[in-house]
Amino acid sequence: MVPRYSRPAMTAIWSPVNRYRIWFEIEALACEAMATFGAIPEEAARIIREKGDVAMAAFSEADLARIDEIEAETRHDVIAFLTWLAEKVGPESRFVHLGMTSSDVLDTCFSVQLVQAADLLLADLDAVLAALKAQALRHKMTVTIGRSHGIHAEPTSFGLKMAGHYAEFARNRARLVEARREIAVCAISGAVGTYAHIDPRVEDFVAEKLGLAAEDVSTQVIPRDRHAAFFCALAVIASGIERLATEVRHLQRSEVREAEEFFHPGQKGSSAMPHKRNPVLSENLTGLARLVRSYAVPALENVALWHERDISHSSVERNIGPDATIGLDFALMRLAGMMEKLVVYPERMMANLESLGGVVHSGEVLLALARAGISREDAYRIVQRNAMATWTKLGEPDGRSFRANLAADPEVAGRIDTDVLDEAMDSARHLAAVDRIYAKVFGADAPDA
Amino acid sequence: MVPRYSRPAMTAIWSPVNRYRIWFEIEALACEAMATFGAIPEEAARIIREKGDVAMAAFSEADLARIDEIEAETRHDVIAFLTWLAEKVGPESRFVHLGMTSSDVLDTCFSVQLVQAADLLLADLDAVLAALKAQALRHKMTVTIGRSHGIHAEPTSFGLKMAGHYAEFARNRARLVEARREIAVCAISGAVGTYAHIDPRVEDFVAEKLGLAAEDVSTQVIPRDRHAAFFCALAVIASGIERLATEVRHLQRSEVREAEEFFHPGQKGSSAMPHKRNPVLSENLTGLARLVRSYAVPALENVALWHERDISHSSVERNIGPDATIGLDFALMRLAGMMEKLVVYPERMMANLESLGGVVHSGEVLLALARAGISREDAYRIVQRNAMATWTKLGEPDGRSFRANLAADPEVAGRIDTDVLDEAMDSARHLAAVDRIYAKVFGADAPDA
Amino acid sequence: MVPRYSRPAMTAIWSPVNRYRIWFEIEALACEAMATFGAIPEEAARIIREKGDVAMAAFSEADLARIDEIEAETRHDVIAFLTWLAEKVGPESRFVHLGMTSSDVLDTCFSVQLVQAADLLLADLDAVLAALKAQALRHKMTVTIGRSHGIHAEPTSFGLKMAGHYAEFARNRARLVEARREIAVCAISGAVGTYAHIDPRVEDFVAEKLGLAAEDVSTQVIPRDRHAAFFCALAVIASGIERLATEVRHLQRSEVREAEEFFHPGQKGSSAMPHKRNPVLSENLTGLARLVRSYAVPALENVALWHERDISHSSVERNIGPDATIGLDFALMRLAGMMEKLVVYPERMMANLESLGGVVHSGEVLLALARAGISREDAYRIVQRNAMATWTKLGEPDGRSFRANLAADPEVAGRIDTDVLDEAMDSARHLAAVDRIYAKVFGADAPDA
Amino acid sequence: MVPRYSRPAMTAIWSPVNRYRIWFEIEALACEAMATFGAIPEEAARIIREKGDVAMAAFSEADLARIDEIEAETRHDVIAFLTWLAEKVGPESRFVHLGMTSSDVLDTCFSVQLVQAADLLLADLDAVLAALKAQALRHKMTVTIGRSHGIHAEPTSFGLKMAGHYAEFARNRARLVEARREIAVCAISGAVGTYAHIDPRVEDFVAEKLGLAAEDVSTQVIPRDRHAAFFCALAVIASGIERLATEVRHLQRSEVREAEEFFHPGQKGSSAMPHKRNPVLSENLTGLARLVRSYAVPALENVALWHERDISHSSVERNIGPDATIGLDFALMRLAGMMEKLVVYPERMMANLESLGGVVHSGEVLLALARAGISREDAYRIVQRNAMATWTKLGEPDGRSFRANLAADPEVAGRIDTDVLDEAMDSARHLAAVDRIYAKVFGADAPDA
């Protein structure tokens, strides 16, 4: 992920130094585990821990360079690290990595990194949820037109829109919690997962210390279905971002103008057109969503490794591990800020709602006619006729409101009273269930409007 | 999905008649709900139920044709169905669909179909799990070589391979249970989800009767993140099929021949080469996995509908709903049968294991040298040298086994005893943890080998 | 592809009978080729052709059933067909398929089917191009607002929008011609492509008769990079459909209303809301585009077959072959019809253009100020200030047009004349280059506006 | 793309300094164009060019920091650059970017970068082609077994395998040439592509100088179908890499050992198993192919921008522009080196070919029996019976070769002579067409074997 879309906390998770710190932690814990049942001397484990901790605390560019230098020769990253560690730890280093294979370190480290990333993303989601909830509560009873197919349908409230996105992000949060659980797995089981040269208690010990579960069956590697499920969860979340971003883009378009991204003082919307205030954040989020979603494809292809493992997944994960989590972290926090500061125009919402002459109440009129004993087919025909008559003369001198057209329609006039018509034109009924929905979504937290 | 890869039970779920039966059930239940609190006459609900049940039970090609005829005129599938239903039910039909919108029926129906499909898929997964477990138990102690990068690594058991796939399919089963829960949702909330013309109790009633949960916030439609998560779960399962299929394809290749798909009497492997017995089932599964996986992409793109809904998701779902579930159903049952009948050749496994002169035990020799006080670097160098000497003269007259080479190496000879070498060449240690792993995977069920 | 989105001509290409006709044609041509150089008796080739032609002309359901019956036993589709053919042709059938392998027939047949499909799709594209050109010519000088980021930018013409889509579909046509060329390939080269049992002249003969090129190197199969490129071309075309569909959806939304899909008499937009006229065609096209695009993913995964071939591609192609071409054929013809009948509202376009008080001319004012010697930074500041003043009071009693605000701004008033301001507010300049662009796109065909 | 998979020449194309150099070049050329027809003073264009060239030549980290600083305030990258440029150029800078919009610069720059990237990739492909051709010529007559379904089929030559991949990469090269042409496009047409404030001759001038074509219809942006086609071409190439990498992985697996990636002295295959020599390069290429392929998905989603443009494509392209080209460049050069140094084992190929007792010649025996007047069905049955008898007793004491089994079969013995059997067992016929195929693939270049 390019720096422009990267935040430091997430980027740090994928830094070499974080990776080496996790590698050391795994190796040190494995030594401590082995020492507990006498596989290696306790003193050795103690020295490895102490000297290693010092080395990791003082880890510098020079250490990075040294490890790279060794890797250039050995062409093996874990061996390079272990050789460097041996230089720091001294003779006791011969007890490090005993009976383990590189993947024990690499895969468990990747799990730790994904768990760290998931924790950041959960915090991001909480920020999004908070921003959505605030808007939902603020605009609980702000009437706006609901649209299907981009066409005015019936009134709803802007708060309800926000509540819907809140509910989706709450589901996304639950999905991420589950995806985090899927990936929070440790494997220290040797070359083909048989524990041939290492006691399974080492795996249990390290797993517990790292807050992970021990893998049921690892085959040198942790099976990649876990990772595929993880990246799919991120893809679903990204799609939720796109849905909300698309909503904002629509609301901000010139003919709608019901809401706007906060426009920063000094910001220039266009180098050529000074009047422009563009929804660039939500457009940017749309693109980021495409990216994060796309990373699920190679993650799924990674599952079918050959036999006990091949290393084709590695180049994929070295990229999509950071790309997907950094991209999603940036997108979520951008979304949270954007929704927090979103400028909402209730008057414009009301103006738009009324701009079609009241045809948006056709559904209620249909029901009123039905209640008056007119058949569904006839009622539909009557209402559609009057709606179209209203629609086609919108804004024209001889245009009439939907209510006026209905009142003048002989098939209507004799059948329903004018106060029934008035009532049908009232948006209030459309907000009647808002309290009930809010109680489902926000629980006891939701204050009255 | 083409008929070749379709099974009747799953295909039936996506048939027009099943769809119309579910539509009627939703409409009838909604009427019954409304009758309970007096929104419509109880008698009307009773008549709708009775006459509708009769009509649905007698549903024929003629009914299909009639509905198609009406749709050709109205260009609206739900209205076409309701018109047909009115013809069957009579005047009480005016109480059907009152205050509802088409999506209330369509989306809830789609949920029911996906739940039905998920139930079939869960049964399929159980068949796969049973076949894998049987092979795992049968070959618990069948020694075979574990391979990383396609290269012999260390011994393992064939049962352990099967146990690993079993564990993955158990995870896949859990994912599908969760995906089923995600999608088991009912929405009867009207044009933009505000319950403006319908009592929310109708939704609760219908949901409960259909074994669904009522959606928290629907916006005419059930939010498509649920469906995206569902199809992603299918994609992960498909990838697990590909992993197992790839394993079988590798085991059957001419140079390996450790296992074979059952070859049907009378089957012809090739029109031109009568000697061929090809792993065509597992290759077919590989292709089906690609298909099922691909359907996740448009499902994810479906999430970002415009405002309260647009109908772009519909054409996608009319295809991937059947395609993904029918394809996966077929693939899982093919996989179950294939694994149940898989022909396994333990002697060939042993022959392959031994074919590299014993170098597969290099890891244990490395540890033995380390235990004898040789540094990791020196031990690695010694072992690699002898492994390469063995490898490069495999099958040649002056070739020697890895053990013989080691025994003749002065750097080894003086340091470790021959019985340590013998022990290092023994595959037994690699099966030592099998019991422990089986207990984790299969629990108390797992009999001793 | 479900029947709802299928047209008969394309569906027929993928019918069993068309497949068997092509299979027979390949076999018969191969026999004729072999007869020309004496590999089989001329009389045999003649009899095969004659009796086969009769059998194929009379091909019925009974023949289909007979082939299926044989396949159920042999589990091999080509052998089943050849056995059926032998029943029809008699003893000379022993000269059929001599030295050939199934893939020679299957792959060459698939090429023929894709070529047939491409020819239909090219005709579809021509229909789309014709519809776009007609709209482009009709609305060459119909002023409308151009929008970037969904925000009014500067005027353009509706015809120019259409010309842009025309140019994209012209590129798409060229891509399909190229993709057709890629796939128009014949392979009759035997089990692993060595012509071990068949003379290469047979391949040349059959290829020429079928209008195909002989593959350079086939390895039992025609390499799947050709097919991947083909399905990628369809994916790009589908994306172009989505771009145009998205434009229409935007133009039809209630607040814009600049264009509308033709609304069929008797059509019902919504079962609950009789006033609705929804852009359901373009929404449907958006979903179909997602589908067709998604088929490129498994087509790309099909490329990496194992060694000289595996059959994993087959299940993919049995589905995406028909799905992608039928879906795209339907989508293109729906698009052509939709664009042909699109209802365009020039007055509404003008009203929208003017609805922002003239700020859409800010770019030209910026340049006028620059020409008057004001620095870019100052000019930008001045124009943005006046644009925002106009924007924020749109429709309010104390609101003023952009031109009025500028005229009242002391930093502007002294610097540029009012006729310069008037000229800056004129949309004419934005159409000045239309002729030039049309000449590039439509060539000499483009009549004057 | 992570540094591990990046080569400097390609990375440099995507560096900020290269981008700014291209931006300046576009702006300077536009000024020169305007000067030619008097839109700005010639002297101004000269000064802009001279001072700008000096500034770009001396471009340093300090300049980068200054531009970033301005962008942090203006939140607009092109304005930031222009402001910096103004600081360097002085008062004449007011003539820079006159009548242009940011996308004129950004999109044309992206085209230039993609063209530069394509030129590197074409050179990479030439290196791959050279390596493949060298192996093809070296092993033109190296007999090896051809495999379908991973099962021995019939003999072929290793050179022919290489020639097949050569032909695919030659097609890939042609696809990239075409993709480069698609993307080699310049747009300088203003805010919505109408040339309202800029003379179209500027676009023509800049395009010609940059070796680009002027876009037919741009709408502020160059239409994204061009970019989608470009990234699809890269995806097809990546899939070709995977096919070849998969071949090598298969050939190197322990049971096959027909070829091996060059194993670097000092390289360690495994930290735990010193005997391992793994095909890590080809596995790595498999993963890189998955990545490059995945980037086509968001590129296709980028096509459907809203109206005249939205900026959602930008975040996608900022990532996949570098990711796809850097990743593919690295992969192609890794592939070229790998194929150049590939270690091939002809003896092992022959040993594998013979390891199935001669059943790989079953196809030729089938034809011999047919020529002897036996019906296809009988011949198939006879040959399959003897092939299976051979296969099932491979390596067993009472096992016999396919030829021996056939000779002992009474249905064979009386029908065909032993010299016919001998001839059928000869691999020579399988190489008979190699010269012909080489002539098609390599033309007059191909020396005799």
From TrEMBL, chains A, B, C, D:
**Parts of the chain that traverse the membrane:** none
Note the InterPro entries from the entry: AdenyloSucc_lyase_C (IPR019468), Fumarase/histidase_N (IPR024083), Fumarate_lyase_CS (IPR020557), Fumarate_lyase_fam (IPR000362), Fumarate_lyase_N (IPR022761), L-Aspartase-like (IPR008948), Pur_lyase (IPR004769)
Please give the PROSITE patterns that the UniProt record associates with this protein: FUMARATE_LYASES
- Describe which pathway this protein belongs to, using the record's wording: Purine metabolism; AMP biosynthesis via de novo pathway; AMP from IMP: step 2/2; Purine metabolism; IMP biosynthesis via de novo pathway; 5-amino-1-(5-phospho-D-ribosyl)imidazole-4-carboxamide from 5-amino-1-(5-phospho-D-ribosyl)imidazole-4-carboxylate: step 2/2
Can you tell which superkingdom this protein's organism belongs to?
Bacteria
Q: Reaction catalysed by this chain?
A: N(6)-(1,2-dicarboxyethyl)-AMP = fumarate + AMP; (2S)-2-[5-amino-1-(5-phospho-beta-D-ribosyl)imidazole-4-carboxamido]succinate = 5-amino-1-(5-phospho-beta-D-ribosyl)imidazole-4-carboxamide + fumarate
Q: Which UniProt keywords apply?
A: Lyase, Purine biosynthesis
User: Which GO biological process entries does UniProt record here?
Assistant: 'de novo' AMP biosynthetic process; 'de novo' IMP biosynthetic process
| SUPFAM superfamilies listed in its UniProt record | L-aspartase-like
**Tagged with keyword Lyase:** yes
MF terms from GO for this chain are:
(S)-2-(5-amino-1-(5-phospho-D-ribosyl)imidazole-4-carboxamido) succinate lyase (fumarate-forming) activity; N6-(1,2-dicarboxyethyl)AMP AMP-lyase (fumarate-forming) activity
Enzyme class of the recorded protein, top EC level: lyase
Residues covered by the Adenylosuccinate lyase C-terminal domain: 357-442
Gene Ontology, cellular component aspect: cytosol
Might you give the EC number(s) for this enzyme?
Answer: 4.3.2.2
Q: Which PANTHER family match?
A: ADENYLOSUCCINATE LYASE
Q: Which NCBIfam families does UniProt cross-reference here? A: purB
> Which family is this protein grouped under?
Belongs to the lyase 1 family. Adenylosuccinate lyase subfamily.
Protein name in UniProt: Adenylosuccinate lyase
